[in-house]
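Re: the request from the purification team.
They wanted to know what the chain is likely to look like in 3D before they choose a buffer screen. I agreed to run a prediction and write the result into the notebook, where they can find it.
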Amino acid sequence: MKKQINATIKAHLLRSAFYLLLLLAVCAIPFALAQRGTKKSTGVIAGTYPAPSLPQTSQLPMFTSGPAGAHALPILPMPEAPQVILYDQYDNAGTNATSSQDFEASLDAFDDELADDFVVPGGQTWSVESIDADGVYFNGSGPAQNFNVRFYTNSGGLPGTLVASRIGMSYSHVGTTFSVTLSPAVSLAAGTYWVSVQARQDFTPAGQWGWTDRTVQSNSAAAWQNPGGGFAVCVTWGQRGATCGIDAGVPDQVYRLNGTSSGGGTPTPTPTPPACSWSAGPNLPTPPTTLIRAVGVYFPDGNFYTVGGRSSDSAGSDFQHVLRYSPGTNSWTEMGVTLPDNFMNNMACGVLNDSGTDYIYCVGGSFATGTTATDRVFRYNPVTDIATVVAAPWPGAMGTILPGGFSVFNNKLYILGGFNINIGMVDTIYEFTPSPAGWVLKNAHLPAARGYIPTTTIGNFIYTGGGSMFDPTVILVDSTDSFRYDPVADSIITIASIPRATAETRALNFCNLMYVMGGGRTAPNPSNEVDIYDPAGDTWSTGIPFVTARRNFPTDTDGTNRIWLAGGYAPTTATNSMEIFNCTVSPCATPSQIELRARKDRVHQRVVVKLKWTGANSNNVDIYRNGVLIATVPNGSGSWTDLLRNPGDYTYKVCEAGTMTCSNEVTVTIP
């Protein structure tokens, strides 16, 4: 009996030892894999928690992982230079993760999208290069094939118009951190935006991916939509918790954005602070109800005028009248004047002064369904509501040529290029002087023949961005060609090309920057994008887009606070809608009263730069190093210390927070 007991004990001991070794091996394998994965990734530091991989519990997708997805958040390292953390709410994780997934075709009804908002501070332009989203696999073990990342404007606390999309982006995955690289990077001017992160993952066999919910709300609460209706809730954007009923009371998502920040590539930030925004204006009056191919003109009386145009593409739809939009009353008025003829489309117009009186001068034009062009010049006085033909016809019309780009410099109207209707483009440059009225054909020519050119004057130069090329089959094709014309020297050079092809729109001088307003007809145009050119740095950035993509619409600006636009093809039929860009405080640069001093020092064997400033009035100040915002700090102490790691030249400036009221620049050299 003793022997039997001893044998049993031995067996139990051997069996227990075997199980213990097996348990150790099972525990060691995931740890080794996690360590191996950590070495390959720069996304998170070693020792992070592995992502929960929850088994399949449902034959159909679910919109949340449930509390089984709870996990501890990893600690993320700083992104590698020159990238910085642009926005960070990688904290306060809840216990649930919400589905955001592009399923296989058989489950398209369950495709859902989750988004959260963030703010690009005033005066900054961000280049978003990657996003770190915390998440888990559930209802299966993954993996995702890739990720879709989309950026939207803000519309009443929910995602609005799509700004940019990056589909099928590669990612790295360590622990619960899914790091998605955006290629190309997404450029965002100041304003409020939404970002969505969506896994491209087949439910069979990989299950689902969920974005970790966050217990603390920053800005607006996260939004979710299921356009196909498979979940029977929120087929359009709604607040994830309050409206869609998903993890109510846990309002946001866990993520951060990485990239670089600048002011459009120069130390002066692109002036589009949060105080600027687009809003709807009153619809165009009836008649004409809708309006295309008119010219918009801001007049010194403070009103925005549309001159000519037509209501449709039908014969006889030409509009021989002037509309006035009055900002003070937010209303439209049709003026009493009848313009000289029905060649009211595609004119070149600008404000010129003759003998102390301002007039709107208009040149050339065509009529609906016509293939001829007029050389007629007329001027309109909004004060007296009288239009008069000027006895100085444009010699560039030649019966079939419409004006190209147009702009005013030194009280002269310049016309760059033009469209020889259904035949080709021209490269000529004409100059019109109001008194005595006359034309000069300049010696300079456009580097490439173009028509419908977005054109504006900034300082002593006339700038262009885009324009129409000619194709014998499709006739008009958008281009990216961009030029700078010197009216005094009568010379022209090529500048950095506008990042997107466009034409059939205007360029405007807003705060001494060129704003190219949407436009274009070559797919995916027409656009609502606002491209901003900075002459100081020969660089482009993007501004806040307007809502309705359109082309051939009247638009103009007062140069400091407002931009107006109305009508146009949206995208192929005429519209009556109006939009107004308004800055409650002008973002244009003002002389700085802030004085900055800087000196280098060594603290605990580390090189630091100590900044001291006086004259700032805001509660906080923005600190820029080499044109990049590196910190927003309280103004009270008037000092801040920057820790440096590498030798080089470092240029600093301090600005009133969220503005372009900045100090002098100070450069420190670290040997």
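For the purification team: Residues 1-51, 264-274 have pLDDT under 50 and may be disordered.
Please add any questions underneath this entry.
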